[in-house]
LuxR family two component transcriptional regulator
Amino acid sequence: MNRTSGRDGAASQNAHNAGLGVVLVDPLPLYREGVSALLQRAPGMRLLGHASTHHAALQLCDRARPDIVVLDSTLDPRCHLAHLLTSNDPALVLVALVGEANRNTRYLANAISAGIHGAIPRSVDPLQLIEAIRRAHSDRRYLDPSLAALATRGRGHIPTQGGQAGKPQQPLSRREYQVLQLIADGLENQAIAKILYVSVETVRTHVKSILRKLGARDRTHAVATAFRTGVLVINQDAAVPAIPAGEPHVPRATRSS
């Protein structure tokens, strides 16, 4: 699903009137509700919903097709979710809310590599947050001045995983992520194959790739690593849509399917 080069006609005007569709992904209910309220009040923006897990975020973005996703760095420290979102929709703009634990060159290098367009401190002033989102969307790149030095210092840095120096971090594909979720649910290869409508051999291939990318010895180790690094989360809750019934968002009207 790619956005075409121009906007024209009534569909473009409707999309403009509706404002930029925004999805918020953050694990903390209080912060999530606060930023959601801020986005709902911001002129030219429309909150499409919020989610607190990887799984819920993917489902919400598939359904709502937002223009922008605002993503908390602590929920996605290795930028796996960012990679999945941008791989599925290259036109999507991602803005990272960078927590203190992730204010380092490694995270910023991973984020830029995964396709994140904007990065701002999680503690940023509300008005600065709105301006940063707008800048990231219009310019396709925005880096808060307080993070710029870290990004510059990290140029040429190759993110590594599992402590193996020089080995590039490889994010999971969307299908591999689905397989990993089902493994975490306790399913064997045959059951996974039936759910995903693929062969058992295809599942085995995905499992081998998952083990390699996560640096895991076996399936159990892969699941443990995924939970520890934030690739998987324990609470797979549902996404919460923000659009009232009967008022559908016009998602990037000129994007082809």
User: Anything to note?
Assistant: Residues 1-16, 156-168, 253-257 have pLDDT under 50 and may be disordered.
